[in-house]
Amino acid sequence: MAAFTHEHHLHLYGCLTAADVYVLGRDRWQARRQELQRYASRHAAICGVVPPYEQFWSPQGLELLQRYYEIDRALSFAQFQAKFDLLLALFPLRQDDLFIWQQVLTKHQQAGLRYAEYRVIYPSSLAAPHTYLRAVNALLARYEADSGGNFQPRLALSLARPPAQAQAQYRALRAMLDADPQGLQHITAIDLCGFEEDYPPSLYRQLFAAIQHDNHRRRQKLAILLHVGESFQNISLHSAVRRILQAHTCGVHRLGHAIALGLNVENLRGTVVQESRQERLAHLQWLLHAEGRELRDFGYHIAAPALQRELAQLQAGMPTPPCRYDDATRAELESLQTAALHWAKAQGLRIETCPTSNLRLGQVRALGFHPLHKFSQHHLSVTLSSDDPGIFASDLAQEAHFCRTALQIPASFMRQMEENQARLCSAKLC
Ligand SMILES: [Zn+2]
């Protein structure tokens, strides 16, 4: 049976379990009352209940904290963020305080992980980001040395979603890497996470091109990671599928989640999505463009005259029609998704799947609708991860168990995923 020991999609704070938050927060929460009050108000506005955070650190508070912190049912991405806010309220980034790193690294080393790439927000809030990154790098190096090289922790920096800000942060990071390659050698990637729907991958074409350009000329290379196709509440599944393929052509090395590419479309039956005119225009233009037209080679029928007509109507100011998921749209949507899966296979797309996270945040209604089934059927290049294992009360071993038993993913595909992740960590890029 395959053993999964390499983690490529982890958020550092999300690795904290409810018990960790209880222990680490006990002496800290009183000094963070103002921030916790803001967390409680946001949580109430989005989830409809006020978390009684003042009781979280009472002698019997762990169970209560657990109830408000862990995710054991389907949630929207906004609800997930409202829960995650507890961590941001409690544990602000500090220049010289690496206690969260120590807690998580110790746990993962003891659990037998051999490779773990942690994503953390680019530390722009700190006065001296370089000093902080250097200290984290030194800590990772120490854990690696102490384990005799059997545990290799790495760092991926999650940049801000607005493209201009991401560009500025990347420039600052690259300058630091150039000036101090030795002190920052454990930095392996940049990532974009958070609410994705307002930020189609095409917005980052310039940034990704700059990273690729720098990668060709420098020894220290950075993989490009993007959360994409995970959230599609205000865009159609058509657009979410398109964005996944566009992320690949824009230069992304590893795609986080890509739920839309594999989710059984039956999962959406009865729902209606009203996407923006801009999004629909982008989709029509893409289908009529060379890149979208490639889907024809994989059996997707592109009725160019009808699309041209719709394009002209939208450009003339006609309202954007809502996307209703019913019998009429099902066949067409399935055909798009199947063509996209074939295209993804042919192009060698790399997907980081996080099964429990996808089940909850992808609002998967039945296990049979889970995206991993189609990834497996189409033999895509997939790695298995746990995303925010503390919040989802999971870990890599449990994710593998869930795939084998609940999803019944074939043993051959499980083996393939395990091989993919062991190979990835030794690759120079991605
Ligand atoms: Zn993630």
Task: Walk me through this protein's architecture.
Helix 2 packs antiparallel against helix 4 (77-90). The strands form two sheets. The chain has an eight-stranded parallel sheet with strand order 1-2-3-4-5-6-9-10. Strands 7-8 form a two-stranded antiparallel ribbon. The two termini are 26 Å apart. With 430 residues, the protein is α/β, with parallel strands linked by helices. The protein has helices at 18-25, 33-47, 61-69, 77-90, 99-110, 129-146, 163-179, 205-217, 237-249, 259-262, 277-288, 290-293, 304-315, 327-347, 355-361, 371-377, 396-405, 411-426, and strands spanning 6-11, 115-121, 152-159, 187-192, 223-228, 254-257, 272-273, 323-324, 350-353, 381-384. It is globular, with a radius of gyration of 22 Å. The chain folds into three domains: 6-10 and 92-273 and 331-426, Metal-dependent hydrolases (TIM Barrel, Alpha-Beta Barrel); 29-90, no CATH class; 275-321, no CATH class. Helix 6 (129-146) links the parallel strand 2 (115-121) and strand 3 (152-159).
